[in-house]
Fold:
Amino acid sequence: MKDIKVLLVDDEEDFVQSLAERIKMRELGSDVAFNGEEALAKLKKNLPDVMILDFKMPGIDGLRVLEEVKKAYPGVQVVMLTAHGTSELEKKARALGAFDYLQKPVGIEKLVETIKKAYALKENLQKNMMAATFAEAGEFDEARKIAEGKKGDKK
Structure:
């Protein structure tokens, strides 16, 4: 699997730095932001594949960041990770497009597994969009190849 770019967003600096190091040890790329404003600014410069996002932060909270991300960058898969969650917040997050919702503390293996699943969904959605674009242009053979995972096998 290629290097998955992950953006970790949490106002608990020690926690997020430690998590970033643990993710890097599993050969995933990671960057950090310590609040919602910083996260949104980083998205404009370097779009991640997956975002791990805390709910409760000063300034722009996690739900608002999630809403902005899904509006501007719908391909970014967002995993909510919080110690302050409720079932109501989980419902709101899922309605706004969160890929998953995890409670702190979460084991690193569970988090990495969730990141990989989110990335696989992102890749599948991109492949399907590309296949649909070729199909709309009348290039059905190429669309079929893309859908079957044989992109670029033109004869």
